[in-house]
């Protein structure tokens, strides 16, 4: 290969790599790592198990506002979660935005956490479990659900909300963190 051909091939490789990566379902780690560069808040979603009043909760970072009028929010439930069936069928739920000091609460509602075991909570008029002390809490009735790849997007109409004090718990590159507001 001539030197000019080698230079041309190296330039082509460099140009292709600067365009980025194509998502590969067989190797999701690169995409997951890239998505982890977006710092998000940490929430605990609570509801009742389908067909009962047994409380169920899950820690998620896929929460977003949708609309102020009407007041709508959304979050995404992984279909691979054992709790998916409960949340996708729930007529009502609550979203608790966690404070920076509430990482242990977030851990309770992960795959290996203790959930509601030994935890004090209240219930609202829809029988949804409510956790005390969150940075913000949104009590919702389910407005709509939409299939989105390997998740179900759950849209809730906010019927009541509460705002607390403190700094938010964040999730970034696979771990918890915190931020402070700029003045």
Automatic annotation (TrEMBL):
Entry protein name: Flavin reductase family protein
SUPFAM superfamilies: FMN-binding split barrel
Segments traversing the membrane: none
Domain of life assignment: Bacteria
Organism of provenance: Sedimentimonas flavescens
Keyword Oxidoreductase: yes
Record's keyword terms, sorted: Oxidoreductase
Matching PANTHER family: FLAVIN REDUCTASE, FLAVIN-DEPENDENT MONOOXYGENASE, REDUCTASE SUBUNIT HSAB
InterPro entries referenced in this protein's UniProt entry, alphabetically: Flavin_Rdtase-like_dom, NADH-dep_flavin_reductase, Split_barrel_FMN-bd
Pfam families the UniProt entry points to: Flavin_Reduct (PF01613)
Annotated ranges, domain Flavin reductase like: 35-178
